[in-house]
């Protein structure tokens, strides 16, 4: 079994956090509350297998980013435990969040440097990563000289530069136009198949989740809980507009709408 | 875990690559046409020249209608300037003052930068000292001159002390606000990439704070120069060099009104020149590199 290098938070009971042989990400009864505010995540348990592509789906404000931040170690759970055995996961934010004082290549090289890659190797490795996201030749450009889609690809390359086996992505393509997004879906699928990394992909776009994931986890809102899970066995490469993807998307959208509608009735009852 | 040595085989579907390249080309748009240099110079030089001409005209007008003893005409001032330039007094004073200003400014930077970083990071110290720093910023540094004379007597030390008291608070303030303006997102990215403590400061916080810091330096120079002139006007001794402030005061003692105006002009021009030739290009270069200003500035 993998060693537990990063165990964060405290479990209320000595729960067997790493019980399921060598999962890549384990959340065990995770509850999160900011100060005296409402409970954002309530008793979320989730286990992601190595090499698995999981999509977290939920309405806006249901706590998806909060959950990813917990897994990335940027925040601590109020209760429960988060474990990412082995590596520190890499996280791709909703915005590209590239450093504007560095070129694309330097942004990637910084990630390599902080990982401890030697100077000589950094340059060739950054070039290779740029090539992987099809940005060879744009390494010398600064972030503001790139288009939105190119910036997200640099951010992806930077996340890959961390060489973490676990890649967390927080709605990375939400701000992009449909064609660019489809293209990046293809590239992400290709990269995932090539590298075999574990990906936890957060989105509020049902079709995107079905297009990408092997498993879709539907979160409820207020508090965020795991509402439902779907295994997706449509063969890759998928197309977002294919009938298979559409059919499943319709089903999941119905469930998601039902989740959201519950709040309307709860609210009506409260007032 | 597995090092990314032999890169994964890149299965490029040609269509995908072409589509991607096409989109990139579309989104980037054609290269922006550069404004021709002549036009740029005209655009930046003409308006100030107009203002200068306007002021000279007003001056000439006032001079004609008033007592010529108290207000010399532009041509008289011009002659006085030519005289003091030809006997080298102005140049000498400019060099002396610039040397003092530069030394005092650099010493202020050396003291204020670590101080600012410390205050930006340690909340207790910041709560304790920031009100004092803000107070000092609004205190005209000429107020330090009497105290400085008593402590350091009539020496260059007095002048440097006044510069330090004028410039340090504003550079400290600039450093703090530079660090404050670093978007929290950058810090989080740094954390995700594994940077902590000094590594985070070196690779993320300091570069991100640079624009604010340079703004602080710019203001710090303005304060240095003002403080220096205040000190030089009052502190005068044959034991040390003769600066612009001393030149100005000497003209006053000789009732040389054109000389006084030449002194004021020289102080103005030197202060402005340092800003225009040093700090503004530096600031613009940094902002432009980050895409924070357009091609014209
Ligand atoms: N640092 C914080 N302090 C207080 N409340 C917070 C904080 N971060 C998030 N929240 C609250 O937690 C809830 C979930 O926020 P979160 O950003 O995780 O939602 P999300 O599912 O990512 O939404 P979106 O799809 O819009 O990105 C929100 O109600 C938000 O107000
Ligand atoms: Mg979010």
Describe the structure.
The complex is a heterodimer of chains A (271) and B (297). Chain A is of the alpha/beta class and 271 residues long. Chain A has a domain at 4-89 and 202-270: Rossmann fold (3-Layer(aba) Sandwich). Chain A has helices spanning 64-72, 104-115, 119-132, 148-161, 178-195, 206-212, 243-270; strands at residues 7-8, 25-33, 39-48, 53-57, 79-83, 90-92, 166-170, 198-203, 215-219, 226-231. In chain A, helix 3 crosses helix 4 (148-161). Chain A starts with 6 loop residues before the first strand and ends with a helix. The longest helix of chain B has 38 residues, at 197-234. Chain B has eleven helices and no strands. Chain B is flat and about 85 Å long. Chain B is mostly helical and 297 residues long. In chain B, helix 6 crosses helix 7 (156-180), helix 9 packs antiparallel against helix 11 and helix 10 runs antiparallel to helix 11. The structure holds adenosine-5'-triphosphate (ATP) and magnesium ion (MG). Adenosine-5'-triphosphate binds at residues 34, 37, 40, 58, 60-66, 204 of chain A. The site of magnesium ion (MG) has 5 residues of chain A, from helix 1.
């Amino acid at each position: 079994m993998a060693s537990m290098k990063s165990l964060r938070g405290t479990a209320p009971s000595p729960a067997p956090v790493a019980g399921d042989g060598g999962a890549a990400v384990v959340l065990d009864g995770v509850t999160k509350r900011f100060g005296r505010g409402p409970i954002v995540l309530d008793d979320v348990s989730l286990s992601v297998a190595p090499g698995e592509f999981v999509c977290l789906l939920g309405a806006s404000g249901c706590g998806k980013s909060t959950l990813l931040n917990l897994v990335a170690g940027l925040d601590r759970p109020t209760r429960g435990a988060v474990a990412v055995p082995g590596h520190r996961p890499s996280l791709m934010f909703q915005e590209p969040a590239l450093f504007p004082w560095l070129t694309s290549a330097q942004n990637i090289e910084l990630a390599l440097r902080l990982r401890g890659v030697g100077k000589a190797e950094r340059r060739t490795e950054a070039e290779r990563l740029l090539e992987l996201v099809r940005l060879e030749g744009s390494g010398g450009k600064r972030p503001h000289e790139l288009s939105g889609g190119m910036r997200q690809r640099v951010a992806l390359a930077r996340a890959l530069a961390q060489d973490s086996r676990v890649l967390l992505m927080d709605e990375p393509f939400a701000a992009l136009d449909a064609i660019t997004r489809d293209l990046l879906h293809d590239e992400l699928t290709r990269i995932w198949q090539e590298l075999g990394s574990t990906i936890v992909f957060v989105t509020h776009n049902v079709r995107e989740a079905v297009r990408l994931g092997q498993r879709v986890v539907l979160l409820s809102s207020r508090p965020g809980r795991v509402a439902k899970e779907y295994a997706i066995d449509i063969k890759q490469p998928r197309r977002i507009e294919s009938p298979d993807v559409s059919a499943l998307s319709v089903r999941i959208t119905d469930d998601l709408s039902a989740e959201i509608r519950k709040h309307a009735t709860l609210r009506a009852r409260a007032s | 875990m597995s090092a990314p040595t032999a890169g994964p085989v890149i299965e490029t579907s040609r269509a995908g690559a072409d589509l991607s390249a096409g989109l990139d080309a579309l989104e980037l748009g054609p290269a922006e046409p550069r404004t021709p240099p002549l036009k740029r110079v005209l655009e930046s030089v003409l308006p100030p020249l107009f203002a200068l001409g306007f002021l000279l005209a007003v001056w000439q007008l006032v001079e004609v209608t008033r007592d010529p003893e108290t207000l010399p005409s532009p041509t008289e001032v011009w002659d006085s300037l030519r005289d003091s330039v030809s006997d080298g007094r102005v140049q000498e004073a400019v060099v002396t003052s610039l040397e003092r200003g530069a030394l005092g400014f650099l010493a202020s930077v050396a003291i204020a930068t670590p101080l600012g970083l410390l205050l930006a990071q340690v909340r207790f110290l910041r709560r304790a000292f920031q009100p004092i720093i803000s107070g000092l910023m609004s205190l005209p540094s000429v107020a330090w001159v009497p105290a400085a004379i008593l402590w350091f007597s009539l020496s260059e030390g007095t002048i440097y002390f006044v510069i330090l008291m004028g410039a340090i608070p504003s550079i400290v303030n600039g450093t703090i606000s530079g660090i404050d303006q670093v978007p929290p997102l950058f810090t989080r990215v740094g954390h995700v990439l594994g940077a902590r403590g000094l590594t985070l400061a070196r690779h993320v916080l300091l570069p991100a704070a640079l624009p604010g810091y340079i703004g602080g330096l710019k203001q710090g120079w303005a304060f240095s120069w003002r403080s220096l002139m205040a000190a030089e006007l009052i502190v005068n001794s044959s034991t040390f060099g003769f600066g612009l402030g001393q030149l100005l005061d000497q003209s006053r003692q000789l009732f040389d009104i054109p000389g006084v105006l030449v002194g004021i002009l020289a102080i103005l021009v030197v202060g402005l020149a340092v800003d225009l030739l040093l700090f503004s290009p530096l600031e613009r270069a940094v902002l432009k590199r980050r895409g924070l200003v357009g091609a014209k500035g």
